[in-house]
Amino acid sequence: MTKLTLIRGLPGSGKSTYAKQLQLSNIARHLEADMYFIDRNGDYMFDARYLGHAHEWCLQSTGSFLIAGIDVIVSNTFTTMKEMRPYIDLANGLGAALDVVEMHSQYGSIHNVPEETMAKMRARWMTLPKEYNVRVA
Length: 137
Hints:
alpha/beta
């Protein structure tokens, strides 16, 4: 059975770092919407106009790997159930185990997310239903 691990948290909470550590201890593919904005030189070139495309790419890539029998770790902010729902539905539809991890540390955003944007994310943060057995890392 394949496994989908969703890592959620605000920018700078350690999601990517934790995902990379988790990936090293498991045979899994790590994905996040931010990867869509990395150019061929390895530079991060964020463009808000393409944020929807980035999330669609991340979801489609997740599905492709799960279908191929490869475990996937997705580290995105996932502030609301609406943002998580497509991944949860994907895991359920493919019979993949689901693991949800929350990151609560604050190390500072490497992508220089404006404080106004961070405040909006904090305001929309949703506590997940108990059925998801969220663990905090």
